[in-house]
Each structure stands twice: as structure tokens, then as C-alpha cells.
Amino acid sequence: MPNNQFKRGELYSFITGKASTAIARRLQKNFKQQGVEITIEQWSVLYHLWKQDGMSQQELCNSTFRDKPSITRLVDNLEKQKLVKRVSSKEDRRMNMIFLTETAKRLQDQSMDIANQTLNEALEGVDVGDIDLCKAVLQQVYDNLK
Length: 146
Hints:
Elements: H1 8-16, H2 18-33, H3 40-51, E1 55-56, H4 57-64, H5 68-80, E2 84-88, E3 96-100, H6 102-122, H7 128-145
Antiparallel strand pairs: 1-3, 2-3
Helix pairs in contact: 2-6, 3-6, 4-5
């Protein structure tokens, strides 16, 4: 027996990720209010580079679940803002490695604080057990579909 107990109109809301969109919009608003002049999409690229500096564009595609043209555009814009730099790979000169600049490194603490503040706003009044359950369910959904 299937677990799908959604009514027709509810499934759309589930798939589109209303909560995720609301969090992204609030994070963008909070960035702007704090003078952090990057988009959520740019922040997601920086976030992965803060975890592992010197990733290839393909690794960024995989980490951020974006296609190559999107990552190329994001890296182009981050480069214009002097937040990242492209360096040819020593192993394969056809491949660019993306590195953070000092400006981007200095942005890490402030932007992570804003992201944590945003998550605290989003999760206000939500029981910790419910959060753990939600994470487990969403991880299972992801694992089922990858």
C-alpha cells in the first residue's frame, strides 16, 4: 500500500518546497539588511568553498545540485565581486579550480551568523523532536530518489 496520502492540491505544495522558499527569501532579506551584497545562490557556492576551498566547477555543480551553465554564471559573478578566483588545475589545464579570495574568507563568519539567525527565526516554536523527525523523513525521501 503506498504511503502517498496527499490530496491532489497538497502534493504541489510538497514538491515546491514552500518552507525552503520562505527561508531563502528571509535569508536574502537578512543579508540585505546586514549589508551582505550576495545572493542566496552565490552564498550556497561560497558555503561549499568555505567547507573545501579549491573545488572544480564540476564539484561545485555536484555539491550545489546545479548544472554547469548555472555554476559558470555564479562563479563569473562571484569573480566580478572579487570573492573567488579561477586557477587552472595543475593536473588538467582544461579544468578550473575555484578558490576563495581573502574578501570571501572574511565574509564567512558574518554570513554564517546571519544564516543561523534566519534558521532560528524559521524554527521558532518548533519542537526539537519534530525537527529531528523532519530531517530523518526528508533524508529518507532524498535517499529513495537519488
